[in-house]
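Quiz preparation item.
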């Protein structure tokens, strides 16, 4: 359970770091969206970890791994893309393409089909409200 969530945090960190190095506004929007996403995911993750019969320090270490993975990859990708010049933007394009494809894969192949399987209007409404929130935030002057 830890590895997929930590990997999700790393992918979010790649996209966040890459976009922030190019546009502060895009970085702020992604930070807001990731805060909401990781807050919900972190709550569910922490409730599962709480049930494990391991020491409190191990639980804390496990719970802190995904956000730390996100932070480290955001810093690394921001550094890599900020060093890319206009003539050599391969690093920027490669990191951004990788992150976007991973997010699309997650959305198209996992989240959308799962939301339709449950036939729960609240889940479907929440999914599309998240997309709408991103567009509204983008319209705001930050």
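Solution:
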């Amino acid at each position: 359970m830890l590895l997929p969530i930590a990997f999700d945090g790393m992918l979010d960190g790649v996209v966040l770091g890459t976009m922030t190095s190019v546009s502060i506004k895009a970085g702020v929007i992604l930070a807001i969206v990731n805060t909401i996403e990781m807050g919900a995911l972190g709550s569910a993750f922490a409730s599962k970890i709480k049930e494990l019969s391991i020491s409190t320090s191990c639980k804390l270490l496990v719970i802190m791994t995904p956000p730390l993975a996100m932070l480290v990859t955001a810093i690394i990708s921001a550094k890599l893309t900020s060093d890319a010049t206009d003539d050599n933007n391969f690093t920027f394009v490669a990191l951004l393409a990788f992150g976007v494809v991973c997010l699309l894969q997650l959305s198209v192949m996992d989240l959308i089909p799962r939301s339709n399987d449950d036939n729960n209007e609240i889940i479907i409404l929440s999914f599309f409200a998240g997309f709408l929130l991103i567009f509204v935030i983008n319209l705001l002057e930050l």
